[in-house]
Amino acid sequence: MPSIFGTTAAARNYFKNIKPDIPLTLTMMFPAFIGSMAGAALAASVPVGFFRPFIVLLLILVATYTWRKPDLGMDENLKFTHKKRLIIVALIGFSIGFYDGIFGPGTGTFLVFFLVSVIGYAFLKASGTAKLVNIATNAGAILSFQLTGHIWWQLGLLLAFANVTGAIIGSRMAIRGGSVLVRKVFLVVTFLLITRVAWDTFIS
C-alpha cells in the first residue's frame, strides 16, 4: 500500500515536467488496473515461489540487454503507428498489472524497459509514464486486497510518509539528470532487484 503514495508523488513531478502522451498512458492504465485486480484476487492461490526463478531470469535478461545497448533510451525513437502503440500498451498494461497483483517486485522495471525497448521512449519519459501506470496497478491491488481484508492500514500509512519523501527527492533528481541518469539508476535498481529476488528464491 505505501508504494501508491510514493508513486503518486513522483508521478505528479513527472507529469508537470515531461508532458506524457495522455491517450497512450490512459490506454495502458485501465487494463493495468483490471489486470492488477485480477492478479491480486489470485495471489493467495498461486504458488508464487514456483515463478521466482523465472522472474530472476527475466530481470537478468533485462539488465544484460540494457547494459549492452548504451544508446538505448537516450533519445525518443517511437516505433509503430499511434494506433498500434495503443493496442500494444493495452495488452502489456494488463499483463504487467496482472504480474504486479500476484508478485509485485520488478513491476516498475518491466514497465520502463517495455516502454524504452518496444515503444521507443527515452528513459526519462518512460520512467514518468511507468509511474502513472504504476498508480493504476497499485490501486487495483489495494482495492482487491481491501475487499478481502488483507490490508494493515495503520502500518501502511506510516510507511507511506517515508515512501513519499523518497519519491519526491528521486523524481526531482531524475528530471534534472535526464535519461542519462535514469538509465544508470535503472541498471543499479535492476541489479539490486536481481540480488533480492535471487536471495529470496535460492537462499532464504
Automatic annotation (TrEMBL):
Organism in which the protein naturally occurs: freshwater metagenome
Lipid bilayer topology: Multi-pass membrane protein
Residue spans crossing the bilayer: 22-44, 50-67, 88-121, 151-169, 181-199
Localization per Swiss-Prot or TrEMBL: Cell membrane
PANTHER family: MEMBRANE TRANSPORTER PROTEIN YFCA-RELATED, TRANSMEMBRANE PROTEIN YFCA
Keywords: Cell membrane, Membrane, Transmembrane, Transmembrane helix, Transport
Name of the molecule in the record: Unannotated protein
Cellular component aspect of the GO annotation: plasma membrane
